[in-house]
Amino acid sequence: xxxxxxxxxxxxxxxxxxxxxxxxxxxxxxxxxxxxxxxxxxxxxxxxxxxxxxxxxxxxxxxx
Length: 64
What we know:
This protein is mainly α. It has one domain (2-56): Orthogonal Bundle (434 Repressor (Amino-terminal Domain)), CATH 1.10.260. Helix content is 69%, strand content 0%. It has helices at 2-12, 17-24, 28-36, 44-54, 58-62. Helix 2 packs across helix 4 (44-54). The radius of gyration is 10 Å and the shape is globular.
């Protein structure tokens, strides 16, 4: 759920994976792992950074 939600939001905002990682201040490899589902439990700090870029709540990222 998290991986597909982030991918959908990234595409909706017309961002490449590199652009999103840069805007959020996370590493490219972290974003790749999250989007591919390899990292199913990213840190709260990472989720905060991503939610800030998308201007949404963390709950929306994780599908609550």
